[in-house]
């Protein structure tokens, strides 16, 4: 049983949580309430609590309840993008002078938010290799309001021990925030391991079909949830009704999709590990990965993201431009396989910073196509 008192299985919650058949028509899928305002029966006489769609919209509520159930939280909030969710979280917990410990290989957009936006407002941050708890403890200051973790990380697939970080953060009176985008709640549930807030780019595995941009915050703390909801309304970067509906539709199949993403990624990692032109494979499912034991303990599967290194930048670029099935593109987590060169694409903005990624690195988002087709495509691109 999770914090919400749900005893139902994950796949059941994904299909039903927050999604009772419509009381008016019996429609089994929540309607897209594409509307800005709601009729009041007398001043303040709200039907179902809805008055204006920035504050709340029934389609978004369905998504938010489903998100809370899947992460085992009490409150879910849906935003226009993952970065909008991160912004609302930081605006809620930081003041000028606050300090946050962030991953040494944080998602590039998260790093940019700290380095280029929040730094201007006096919020300080320290990038730390989260795989080493002693370094995290050493980076904490009296002003530290949060430890921000990402596991697995993008694009190096680093693993952090969520329970260990929760202890360190809480001993210092700080929150533990976990960006759970790469794992999804099907593979990993940070709140149950002691995290205070889960952040998502629902653009990725949750939506799952590369057709919508969105973000979310989930917490198991009622009071924190109410503060997030206040900022969500006060700042206004909410998920629209159609985007909420698309995300909910994607979530219904999250479990079966993740099983296939994991199975395909394992085969891809195995092929790459045996390939003479590949110098290193970064996949937490491999016994050689330094975070393998921690990942095996806190994740139900190792996910669909695989990164690998060639020997030179030119070779990495050539592989990225030689696949036929893997589509060259940014983003991840959709049903279709994608390939990219982080140093020149998703992480180009990290060049020259402590978060710069190796130039010979290639990142794969392994989709749910037939595994033999994916393996054949990589074989020919590496030939
Ligand atoms: C994509 C991504 C984000 C940002 O989400 P957007 O929906 O693009 O704003 C945050 N964290 C991780 C790990 C991501 O992959």
From TrEMBL:
Entry's family note: Belongs to the trans-sulfuration enzymes family.
Cofactor(s) demanded: pyridoxal 5'-phosphate
Chain positions with N6-(pyridoxal phosphate)lysine modification: 204
GO BP annotations, alphabetical order: cysteine biosynthetic process via cystathionine; methionine biosynthetic process; transsulfuration
Protein name: Cystathionine gamma-lyase
Record's keyword terms, sorted: Lyase, Pyridoxal phosphate
UniProt xrefs under InterPro entries: Cys/Met-Metab_PyrdxlP-dep_enz, Cys_met_metab_PP, PyrdxlP-dep_Trfase, PyrdxlP-dep_Trfase_major, PyrdxlP-dep_Trfase_small
GO cellular component: cytoplasm
GO MF term set: cystathionine gamma-lyase activity; cystathionine gamma-synthase activity; pyridoxal phosphate binding
